[in-house]
Amino acid sequence: MSVHSHPAAHEGAAAGFDPSRAAGLDPASPPEFPRHVVTAVLVSHDGARWLPDAVAGLLGQDRPVQNAIAADTGSADDSARLLTEALGPDRVLHLARRSGFGTAVDEAVRTAPVLTPEELPYLKRPSGWDPVSRSWRDEAYDLPELPHGEPEQWLWFLHDDCAPEPGALAEMLRAVENERELGQDTQDIAIIGPKLRGWYDRRQLLEVGVSIAHSGRRWTGLDRREQDQGQHDQVRPVLAVSTAGMLVRREVYERLGGFDRRLPLMRDDVDLCWRAHTAGLRVLVAPDAVVRHAEASSRERRTVDCVGRTATSPHRVDKAGAAYTLLVNSRTAVLPWVLVRLVVGTVLRTLAYLVGKAPGQALDEVAGLFGTLLRPERILAGRRKRGKPVVEASETRPLFPPPGATVRATVEQVASNLVGRSDAEVTAAGRHGGAVESGPGGDDADFLEIEQFARVKRIARKPGPVLFVVLLFVSLIACRALLGGGALAGGALLPAPADASGLWSRFLDGWHPVGIGGTESAPPYLAFLGFLSTLLLGSSGLAVTVLLVGSVPLAGFAAYFASRPLVQSRLLRAWASVAYAFLPAATGALAGGRIGTAVLAILLPLIARAGVSASGLAAPEGARGSWRATWAYALLLTVTTAFTPIVWPIAAVLGVALLAVHRRDLTAYGPRFLAALGTPLLVLAPWSLSLLPFGFFKEAGLEYGTGAASALDLLGASPGGPGTVSGLLLIGIVLAALGALLRGQRQAAIRTAWAVALVALVFAALSNGSAWAGPATLAYGIALLAAAALGADGARARVAEQSFGWRQPVAALIAFAAAAGPLLAAAGWMIGGADGPLQRRDPVQVPAFVAEESGTQDQARTLVLDSATTAEVSYTLVRGAGARLGDAELAAADGTHERLDRIVGRLLAGSGADQADQLGGYAVRYVLVRDGAPRQLGRTLDATPGLTRLSQEDGSALWRVDRQVARAAIVPKSGDPEPVAAGPVELHTRIPAGKEGRVLRLADSADAGWTATLDGRTLTRTTVDGWAQGFELPATAGRLDVTYEPTAGHTGWLWAQGALAVVLVVLALPGRRRDVDDDLPEEPVVPAQAVAGEGRRARRLRAQGEASPDGPDGSDAEGLGAVPAQHTPDQAPGYDAWQTPAPAGADQGAYGGEQGYQGGQYGSYEQPYQADPYQAGPGGAGHSGQYDPYAYGGSYGGDQPGYGQTYDPAGTVGSGAPGEADPAGRGDGGYAQQPPPVPPQSPPMPPRPPRGPDSERPDGSQQ
Amino acid sequence: MNRTTVSLIAATAALAAVTGFASVNAPDGGDDAAKTAKRLPVERTSLLCPEPSTSDLAETSYTAFTPSSGGAVSGGKAELLPAPKVLTDTHQGSKDRTKGLKPFLTQKAPGKPVTGEESGAEAPALVGSADGALAPGWTVQQTTTVSAGSGRGVQGANCVAPDTEFWFPGASTAKGRSDYIHLTNPDDAAAVVDVELYGRDGSIKADVGQSIQIQPHSSVPVLLSTLTGKPYTNITMHVAARSGRVAAAVHSSDDKLGGDWLPASTDPAPSLVLPGIPKDATSVRLVAFAPGADDADLKVRLASPTGPITPAGNETLHVKSGMTAAVDLGDVTKGEPGSLLLTPTEDAVPVVAGLRVTRGKGDKQETAFIPATSPVGARATVADNRAKGSTLSLVAPGKTGRVKVTASAGTEAGEPVTKTYTVKGGTTLAVEPPVPSGLKGSYALTLETQSGGPVHAARMLELPENGIPMFTVQTLPDDRGMVAVPEAEQDLDVLQK
């Protein structure tokens, strides 16, 4: 296209426009389809960039227009001058800058004269005198007065950014004539439109007629980036055609009153055509007529300033136009439905835009809709003006998209956004003809495969799923005892509550009925578990099972997925993933019921990958870590901090180290550091603040066991405890990681891994002193594995090339140890079973009848006792059937209740006092002594007055407190308390009258949040027995209501926390793909770069290049996931086609083509177009074959979808002045500076143009 | 040296350093074993004194005493209330029965014993409770003198705290013996008690002994011979409260040999000490029982004043599981005071044991029972010591121990006196206990272990009458005035077992 965008090419040719001269015709001699008189109306607005092509297209028509008139709406650039030069000053109108398209057209039409046979003599019967032969021709007299019939006046609307192909007009007129030949009435053909193709990507279909859905969506019926292969090439009626190239009968246009004034730019075409339909006319599309359209306004390549006072977003104009068009044109019967669809669709789309981090578009959606809806008088006026349609609704129905089509399209779009955005194959397949699947190689041969097994085979060939399945299988065997009925419990894990609401209420409620009750903030991991349970249809048990039983396969899968940038070898990645999944910390977490470490095991590989992306260590020189990766890192860190807080200090230390590395760029990395580490503290507050400064060693669940590892265990990444193997078994991995340090290449990555490993090991040693060291050893293990994998990458070749000596046997030994260790651990795990203290069992922790009784209105509790020695005794005050997940932290946060401690101690000492009575004050009805407690304990309880031994089963012993026990009781001044029916927290009942001075006593600790009312009157709060909540009761009877109201701060903070979490997720999610990135201007060839979001194949190719012996050595600018910042296109099989023409020759060819164009006539100019542009024509070999953006994309973009999108913001997000936003000076005439395409073995490409910190790539950093 | 080698060395050094740090920081895990429970004074003490005698000639004196602890607790009261004998199973309102009862004996302050007298056969059982400052170490001695008839002699009983399980080795249903088990229920709810008897050949079927109901605040005496139907010379009786708690004591009276209270043996243990065999004991019978599933082989030794000796012919005792083993040791003491030490020969099998000691000859014999006893511990008290006739036997079965003996103020007059004794390991020390200066009435002895190994103690009270060496022996186990209060801590881990 460089040829066409060269302005100089047009100036000579277009100067001094004269339609007759341009057509090379005698005005007197008839053109093709002579009865049609076509007046072209070209509207320009800041379109100098495209205008030369547009004018050339207009003037280069095979069937020239009889008249042309241009309207320039106050262009700030060269547009007016270009038009004047091309058409002559008298054919150019100059309008105000804020004139809309409709206004401009109206003005132009009003100005343009209706050409009559007087002006166009060929329309008349030719005179009998032939001046050439100087003779009379008799046959002329036999002709009618108007030999071509009554002239039909047409208006041909053109934009400054649309270039008609030479045959466009002729084809449209031919469509009319064909109809006429078929005997149809052609007078009702009001409007004909061409097929629109992309400006830059000339095979891309933009529109073959458009329609409008009830949601306001502009419906083309085409797939995104659908390629034109003639699949839509038939003349057919459509609802509307675009104004770019629209051919409309002049009298129809005038009869309909032109474009609606309320539609200044967008959707005016749909509205006009719709009105034509309702007037009983026809609208056709003639796909043989082709117009290239840049869609400059809607693609934000120029400012839209014809609407409102300032520049407006085209999206908003489009939305407003769609709403208006629908509301004024829809039939009254469907209007309510349309209104509902519009509003609902807008809300949904606004949400989607918000999630996709496009707040501007979200605002446009809302503003566009409400800008229309809030002016109902305009709609009413519009509807009145249109009146009743003359045609039946059923006639126009086929013109609208079928029901559900928009929904399906949306689903496909979302799916492709989520899945296909980085998937090179999908886009590549799309180019090859719309096949959805083309297999890993993008190979057309795949289409020949037998379809039903193709998918299975493809999956089987992918190691990731296979690895997952194998690990899952191994896990299921190992976890055989952990499947089935009952609840997972044991070790650090308490049984999960019955459903997700139990988890949520533990997190959200202000009052936690645990022990004697408390108001402490709940641990936030409950919210995450609750969220997961909600996703799993409310089954909290399933969520816990998935996280624990599934932790090993999920960890392995995550490691495999996340290790993609690390090393190229799939075998190595699989080994590292297996070794990671079977790290002792992972199996130990499962055995010990440590759900925190299990979650960490799953997420740690993803954290590592996000962290590397955010750190910028893997980015090429000069590039920084992306903000999106930072937010993803912060999100993952937040989740894991909630489960295993120790990751936060590890991340903090590593973050400080990173800041030291990036000390030159503190302004960029300081905020990232603060965001990544501050977010967990903020989102998890106030719980997170309770961790500071030394609470980070604890983890989700019960405190179960202490540090169990020896120093050697820790060295081998084993935290000790049940379900773990000795650290010595994995010593091979440590040695392999040490050996990696000897590798010459990728030193930075290896050293980074080692730094992480050492920091994690220090934290493991620290935490081993007081707690289980699992989480830290997990981090240590993954860092070691990363280092080992980096070292093992290509190690065989390196070792082999050394002369034989001690190195080879040592390397072989280490390799064997590193490979055998995890396998042995896995085998042992599989045989021995994964259960340790963790088991499946009945979640009821007290005898069944006790659990049953505790649910009655007395809400009686059970004191559960156990002790190993007589010197220490542990107890728990149990409500209901037992403690559930999360209660351990809540109880711990509530702190010790010394009075109860003392009572229990005295009770077990047998000190003789009335402990039973005191227990009754805590609503304890039963005392349960666990099996294994000293016998003396049971003797003492037996000998305690007021306790009755009930039964003794499974070794535990149960006593009942012989006393009326209830959670709520009315305590009179003298006499026995009277129980009151109560719920677990609240209390709603009627109480009888009594004496003055009685007190309502709750066996819950006193708190200001308790409120009680008797018949609506608030009761005075008192504290009973120094701890229990009481209320002074009057003597009267009435309805008693006791509730707990959390403080406003608590509720408010929960909402804020939720909002923060949503914002964090939105920030961390991949951004929404801009819709305007399809048809892109040709870019200067850029180096392939190690962007985080690039396609996997591109990376693989690059890694190949890196790994190959003659490949460039990317030794410095890489970190963990680094790939060399160089591109060796010759490595890619997909480049073969591209390579066939020698690059240099292609280059010359391209420029030669351009020169030829410059100097050429229109004829030469047209030639490449008339010929199939994709055939290698003489001048077009370089021209179309080389510079065709599509062909180009087929080689580059096919492997690297991020490539094109990378440049998108530069062209589209910028200031709106297209030329200015062009980073490489691309633009009109900019191609002269374009660097040559990548030759094979080329030196490193110039770095990507610097971009501002805010211009986050919409796609480049996704995944 | 190139860079890779340097980095390898650096990483290895760092790994070694961190590993070294980890080995230093590793948990040693031995520190929580050192924790011991705090010892705190009890808050309330219950004591139950059985019905003293069925003889009209019985003269009973009660002496109650609480040693002064010097603790911070003050106030409180201690009183003994009569508990009527109830032979029916019908429940009568417990509240009504305790209401309006006048306390038989009330103690006002610690450190000074109080006494009360009863006579005749109608004296009721007593239920006592002490709280506040009077609770720790509260002791009540019940001494009955029956001058003639079956079971004539001195019968002394240390009122016992209610419990759920008692072992009585040494009971008998032989001809001429009439042994009663007195079961007293101090609580507001009825108690259900099983009485099981074990003879030489194992368990004796005694259906009557099952599910004996004891009404609140009442006492039930049961004649053992009604349970067996057949005479057994040596019986081990097991009293277990199925629900509630009771105090149990066996009153044994022999037509010829006099009688005494048979106190419960200490809890089954592999090694037992039966302290305080009087030097002039003419006959000593050892009765042992192994309640567990294993047979016990016991080494029998006598801790003489000079050291442990093994009685010839009775070096070991084989106790079959579930069967009562009895051996007559004769005059094993050979004129020297002693204590019997039972230790396992091989496996440590818990046993219970008791001694019947007879003094005197011909028809002037009197018996007393010495159960296996736990050591003095922190403090042990025995009340009702007279100016004459008390002998305190101290035995240290293992290491040498020092015991401080305090003679309290007299019931009427007298100043406390303190004396410290050292008991050599393996010996028995029989002394005349110190007597309060200016004593009038009776006094109490309080023993406190000062240092060294455990010391077991027994006090023999001699009240000879009509040439009959009437006597009774009370052992001095720990008074449980101070209890080990475990440190209670809320921990949800207890739910996970």
Jot down its keywords:
heterodimer, A: 1263 residues, alpha+beta, ten-stranded mixed β-sheet, five-stranded mixed β-sheet, 44% helix, disordered C terminus, B: 497 residues, mainly beta, Hypothetical Protein Tm1070, Chain: A, 3 domains, five-stranded antiparallel β-sheet, 39 strands, 47% strand, globular
Give the uncertain stretches of chain A in residue-range form. Answer: 1-17, 19-25, 420-450, 1083-1095, 1106-1263
The most extensive contact between chains is: A-B, 82 and 61 residues
CATH topology value of the largest domain in chain B = Hypothetical Protein Tm1070, Chain: A
CATH architecture of the largest domain in chain B: Sandwich
The share of residues in helices of chain A is 40-55%
Number of helices, where a helix is a run of at least 4 consecutive DSSP H or I residues of chain A = 48
Multimerization state: heterodimer
Number of helices of chain B: 3
What is the general shape of chain A?
elongated
* Mean pLDDT across all amino acids of chain B: 86
Structural class by helix and strand composition of chain A: alpha+beta
The main β sheet of chain A shows up as:
10 strands, mixed
Distance between the ends of chain A: 33 Å
Mean pLDDT of chain A: 79
Shape, principal axes of CA atoms of chain B: globular
Beta-strand content of chain A: 5-15%
The strand count of chain A comes to 30
Structural class of chain B: mainly beta
CATH level 4 superfamily of the largest domain in chain B: TM1070-like
Organism (chain B): Streptomyces flavofungini
InterPro entries (chain B): DUF5719
Keywords (chain B): Signal
Protein name (chain B): Secreted protein
Describe the protein's architecture and organization.
Helix content of chain A is 44%, strand content 12%. With 1263 residues, chain A is an alpha+beta fold. In chain A, the strands form seven sheets. In chain A, strands 1, 2, 3, 6, 7, 8, 9, 12, 13 and 14 form a ten-stranded mixed β-sheet that branches. Chain A has a five-stranded mixed β-sheet with strand order 18-17-19-21-20, sandwiched between helices. In chain A, helix 24 (584-591) packs antiparallel against helix 25, helix 26 (627-643) packs parallel to helix 28 and helix 43 crosses helix 45 (1180-1187). Chain A starts with 7 loop residues before the first helix and ends in a 51-residue tail after the last helix. Residues 1-17, 19-25, 420-450, 1083-1095 and 1106-1263 of chain A have low confidence and may be disordered. Chain B has 497 residues and is mainly beta. Chain B folds into three domains: 3-39 and 484-496, no CATH class; 45-65 and 72-262, Hypothetical Protein Tm1070, Chain: A, CATH 2.60.290.11; 272-480, Sandwich (Hypothetical Protein Tm1070, Chain: A). In chain B, strands 10, 12, 13, 14 and 16 form a five-stranded antiparallel β-sheet that branches. In chain B, strand 17 and strand 18 (258-262) form a beta hairpin. The longest helix of chain B has 23 residues, at 3-25. The chains are: A alpha+beta (1263), B mainly beta (497). The interface between A and B is large, with 82 and 61 residues. Strand 18 of chain A pairs parallel with strand 39 of chain B.
